[in-house]
Specification:
Residues 27-270 form the ABC transporter domain. One of its GO terms (cellular component) is membrane. The protein is α/β, with parallel strands linked by helices. 32% of the residues lie in helices and 23% in strands. Helix 5 (144-156) packs across helix 6 (172-184) and helix 6 runs parallel beside helix 7 (202-219).
Length: 282
């Protein structure tokens, strides 16, 4: 069976290690507004995310974090403005182009979105459905190479011994690790994480975020992660973008921020203010 080191080497070879100078790999939103009826979820959002780093979206529930994430892979389309992901103009892309893009953009969710009655291994294999032809019914229907890759990714997240358990027998932290392995088997270039630790206890939360940090560093993945915990954001984020009522109110490198700066994202205001941005970014 293929071992973890071989899978890691193959993934690293297939995914360029991204740097802030890789313009074609950037994720950018330019003047994006999103309305749901009379509700404005995003208001003239302009932001770009640092390639190969952990970019944190920080804000209260309802601030627009999840809506922004779903624009990156085309699950939402903007009412106005432009979205570019991995060189694809998402706002103008065909459904075929969006499907192709989504094979390169992994996503993990707050509530894991695993199939509880399926084994852990089959849940991870399901991450390859977008690149396999034909339906899959049961673990036996996946190619051996896919199952070997899935086992290697489970080993990476520390759950190889749980491969044949039902997913719904695992703890919350373990289920989120399975979801990360499922995203990694896609061999993504960008990984979106929508409140990945909101349902977890502090110890499990720290473990999951440490794992995301390790993966981003090892594979050069661009991670864009929504959080509402300030301490976690400061500990793991390379860049922090603060959202309030659908507007960007903070956008700076984490090492140039104090905790007071970050807590200001949660300060109630009567009117939108200018973005507090990194001078080096202008």
């Amino acid at each position: 069976m293929t071992n973890v080191a071989e899978i890691r080497q193959a993934m690293t070879a297939g995914i360029p290690h991204l740097t802030p100078d890789d313009a074609d790999s950037a994720v950018r939103l330019n003047g994006v507004t999103k309305q749901f009826g009379q509700v404005t979820a995003l208001a003239d959002v302009t932001v770009d995310f640092t390639p190969g780093a952990i970019n944190v979206l920080l804000g209260l529930s309802g601030s627009g974090k999840s809506t922004l994430l779903r624009h990156i892979n085309g699950l939402h389309q903007p009412t106005a403005g432009e979205v570019e992901t991995l060189g694809v103009a998402v706002h103008d892309a065909s459904q075929r182009d969006l499907r192709r893009l989504r094979t390169r953009v992994g996503m993990i969710f707050q509530h894991f979105h695993l199939v509880g009655s399926m084994s852990v291994l089959e849940n991870v294999c399901a991450g390859r459905l977008g690149s396999l032809r034909g339906p899959r019914v049961g673990l036996f229907s996946y190619p051996c190479a896919v199952k070997e890759q899935a086992m290697a990714h489970l080993a990476r997240v520390g759950l190889a011994d749980k491969a044949f358990q039902r997913a719904d027998t695992l703890s919350g932290g373990q289920q989120q690790r399975v979801a990360i392995a499922r995203a990694l088997i896609q061999e993504p270039v960008v990984l979106l994480a929508d409140e990945p630790v909101a349902s977890l206890d502090p110890v499990s939360s720290a473990g999951v975020m440490d794992l995301l940090r390790e993966i981003s560093t090892d594979l050069g993945l661009t991670v864009i992660c929504s959080l509402h915990q300030v301490e976690l954001a400061m500990d793991v984020g390379d860049r922090i973008t603060g959202l309030r009522s659908g507007r960007v109110v903070l956008d700076r490198a984490a090492d140039r921020l104090s905790r007071d700066d970050v807590f200001d994202v949660y300060t109630a205001v009567s009117a939108p203010e200018a973005v507090d941005s990194d001078p080096a970014r202008a």
